[in-house]
Each structure stands twice: as structure tokens, then as C-alpha cells.
Hints:
Distance between the termini: 57 Å
Number of strands: 0
Strand content: under 5%
Structural class: mainly alpha
CATH topology of the largest domain: Leucine-rich Repeat Variant
Radius of gyration: 19 Å
Shape: elongated
Order of helices and strands: HHHHHHHHHHH
CATH class of the largest domain: Mainly Alpha
Helix content: 55-70%
Mean pLDDT: 94
Low-confidence stretches: 1-6
Number of helices: 11
Amino acid sequence: MSQSERRSPIFKSVLDALLNQEKPFPPIFLNSFSDLDPTSITALKNIWSRVPLARRQTLLEDLESLSDADSLTSFDEIARLALKDEDAKVRILAMRLLWDVQDRKLVPTFIGMLENDPDFEARATAASALGNYVYFGEIEEIPGTLLTSIENSLLRVVTGKDKELVRRRALESLGFSSRPEVPAFIRNAYNHTQPEGIESSLFAMGRSAD
């Protein structure tokens, strides 16, 4: 019997508990969402929309706390599933769970969310998530063409008319970039009349080491 087959009956109990609104979800089951195998992730996808919204949100919050406390856990698969959730908070929490994941396949998703997500806080979170990939590009761990796509998207936001929070987060992510036009945007933000704009410029300066 494979590990996946051994795990399936146990994971079914986890999913049943997730759907059971009569009882709180047992914290002991949280580790079951780490390193999900294909069979388990398929089972989770099949019931995800039936999990009450408050429980989806709380689950991802708890997984984020567990991930911070235990670096050996990996909740990438459930986070990728939650990126497509209809609820903005769930999408934001999913991006935060993927913060330290270096997977270039996530870049188009994050760019799409930055440019098209209906929730401005989710767009701002996507802008922040892309900052890691700007850094990876600068140290040549992702292709230059991919880095350029990320930078172009962030620059469009910085020079666009999105909410100030989204533009600020995009500027902070561009702090890692060596693109020649970026320093001027950082200087402009430093001369901003609002303290939030100054804060973002200082954050970007620190990342640029300039």
C-alpha cells in the first residue's frame, strides 16, 4: 500500500471535520495539510467550496501561524488552491502562505492578481509577493525575461491610478530592481506629503542599498 493510500482514510476524517459546523475544527489536524499528495489535494478541491467562509479564513490563518512556528511544514498546495477562492481575505492569506516559495510558475498568477483582482488589498498583497521575484531576478535565479515582465507590471502600477496602497507596495517591491527609472520614483515618494508615501520610499531605499 502506498503512502497516499495509507493517508487517504485519515485525511477523509480531516475533511469531514472541516465540513462539520457543529464542532470547532481540531487544531491537531492542521499538520495534515502539510505536503499534500495529489489524491488528498483532489479530495480537498472537491469539498473546498462547501467549507464555510469563516472556517476557510481561520484555517489559513492557523496554517500561517503554524508555518511561522515550524519551518518543516509546507502548505503550498492548499495555498495554491486558495488563490482562486472567491473571498479576498482567503486569497490574501494564500499569497502570504506562499511568501517564501520560489516557484516561477506563480509569477503569472501574481501578476494577474496585481493587475486584475477586484479587491485592492489583494492587489497590494500581490505587489508585495512579486518583490521576492524581483530579488530573485537580480541575483539571476529566474530568467531575465521573467524579471522584465514583473518589473513592467509593477511600473505600470506605480505610474497608474490604482489605490495608493497598491502603488506603494509596488514601489516597495521595485526597491530590489536595478532598472534605471526606479530611483526617480523612490525620490518622488520620499517627497510625498503623506507619511505613508515616505515610509514606502524608505522601505524601497533599504532594499536598493542606495
